[in-house]
Design a protein that fits this description.
Layout lengths: L3 H23 L5 E4 L2 E8 L6 E10 L10 E8 L8 E6 L1 E3 L2 E8 L4 E9 L5 E9 L6 E3 L15 E3 L2 H7 L2 E4 L1 E15 L3 H12 L4 H13 L4 H10 L13 E8 L11 E5 L8 E8 L9 E8 L11 E17 L4 E2 L4 E8 L2 E6 L1 E2 L3 E5 L2 E10 L6 E5 L1 H10 L11 H9 L1
Antiparallel strand pairs: 1-2, 2-3, 3-7, 4-5, 4-8, 6-7, 8-9, 9-10, 11-21, 12-25, 13-14, 13-18, 14-17, 15-16, 15-18, 16-17, 18-24, 19-20, 20-21, 20-25, 22-24, 23-24
Helix pairs in contact: 3-4
């Protein structure tokens, strides 16, 4: 017969066993996930996740199963668009706590969420892992990086999700928004002036100098022919018409036509470069001396008068030339030409949000311009609005990202419009 002492011992042992069993269940290690030569333990808390504040806990181990504590871990989480609700995305930096990393999550609504880890190791390598979790359901679903990106985009989506394998295959490249010394180039065809009409007008002005009423009319005629006030004053002082208008001299005149939308950038006194096929290795430097005030109604162009001070009698009357107007635009934020997608109504770029997420965004830009990088000219669009200075813009493979948006179940920005955009267009 069991004594009271034996019953007490048995009860204590049973309590210890039960306590140990439940403790074992509670502290059962998280599932291990292999990412390249790393092993990850990843869990969310609370489990199952619920709306409100939560955490993701990450342990990174090397091939020898030793914890890595000197990595940078970025945690991105988001939800695909649903109906009229736009896609959501946030990114937080994991904080090292002992041999683990923790990051705070803010789960704003019920549903299925994407979770992406970007791990930057001390040796410069970057590893990525993709997961899904759902409110009210325990655990994570792991998507190996070479699998199709888990984010299922809908028609209102502004975010596209790519795996690192897709990024590598497509050769996606991003660069931060920067300021550059921007300049515009206008190329125009010109002709070396043979303009006896203008020389005659100058002679008429000189002949009328003694008659104030006539000289005013003669000056007005010169202005209509593109003679500036400075040139009229010079003519008044020298009392000599310009033979370079009809004869080859060391000084020559060139007339170039530019379109009306380019006029705002061209002013008197600017320097231009002039070249001709007759002397392909020679570049002539010119100065804008006048702008004919009358616009050609058929070609929508305006005539620019350019003086070539050192023509060396090489530029002959009626010779065709190429004229390059170099117009400084100042120090501005600019994006490469390749970064811009034009839909006709909108201009779009993709912003690299990190962790394989790319956000489609409308921007406003100025006319196409140029910059010099290491002595080489590159085409850019000066930025007016739409990108912040610390953001990275996709500059290569953005067409492929846009196509991925459509393949993922949404609409591309280039080839289709979201439901919201269609509604807005109908309003207009």
């Amino acid at each position: 017969m069991m004594t009271k002492r034996n019953i007490l011992i048995a009860a204590v042992v049973l309590v210890v066993l039960v306590f140990g069993y439940f403790r074992l269940i509670k502290t059962e290690p998280s599932k291990m996930y292999r990412v390249g030569d790393l092993m990850l333990q990843v869990s969310v808390s609370p489990n199952p996740p619920r709306v409100g504040d939560g955490k993701v806990k990450i342990m990174i181990m090397d091939k020898n199963h030793k914890p890595i504590t000197d990595a940078k871990v970025d945690v991105g989480y988001g939800m695909a668009a649903m109906g009229n609700m736009p896609a959501m995305y946030s990114e937080v930096r994991g904080q090292g706590i002992g041999d683990r990393y923790e990051a705070d999550l803010s789960i704003s609504m019920l549903g299925s969420w994407d979770l992406s880890l970007t791990i930057k190791l001390k040796n410069g390598e970057t590893k990525r892992a993709n997961f899904k979790f759902s409110t009210g359901q325990k655990g994570l679903i792991f998507y190996p990086d070479e699998d199709i990106a888990p984010m299922d985009m809908s028609s209102n989506a502004q975010l596209v999700k790519l795996t690192s394998k897709q990024i590598k295959l497509a050769q996606v490249r991003s660069m931060p928004l920067k300021r550059y010394s921007v300049f515009r180039e206008i190329r125009a065809v010109g002709v070396v002036a043979y303009d006896p009409q203008l020389q005659v007008a100058e002679e008429e002005y000189l002949s009328a100098l003694n008659d104030l009423s006539v000289v005013n009319l003669a000056a007005k005629k010169l202005r209509l022919l593109g003679i500036s006030e400075k040139e009229i004053k010079r003519l008044h002082l020298t009392k000599k018409s310009d033979d370079a208008l009809i004869l080859p001299e060391d000084r020559a005149w060139v007339y170039a036509n530019i379109y009306e939308y380019e006029l705002s950038d061209v002013i008197e006194g600017q320097r231009v470069d002039v070249t001709t096929i007759a002397y392909p290795d020679k570049k002539f430097s010119g100065i804008i001396r006048g702008i004919v005030p009358v616009l050609d109604s058929k070609s929508r162009t305006q005539k620019i008068r350019i003086e070539i001070p050192k023509a060396y009698s090489l530029l002959r009357a009626n010779m065709y030339v190429d004229v390059d107007f170099i117009i400084p635009q100042g120090n501005k934020y600019a994006i490469p030409k390749a970064a811009l997608l034009e839909t006709g109504k909108r201009k779009l770029v993709y912003i690299d949000k990190g962790a394989g997420y790319y956000e489609r965004r409308s921007v406003r830009v100025g006319p196409l311009a140029s910059i010099l990088i290491d002595g080489e000219k590159q085409l850019v669009y000066p930025l007016i609005s739409g990108v912040k200075k610390d953001e990275a813009v996709v500059v290569a493979a953005n067409f492929l990202i846009d196509s991925q948006s459509e393949l993922s179940g949404g609409m591309s920005g280039l080839y289709g419009s979201s439901a919201k955009e269609v509604k807005q267009e109908h309003k207009h």
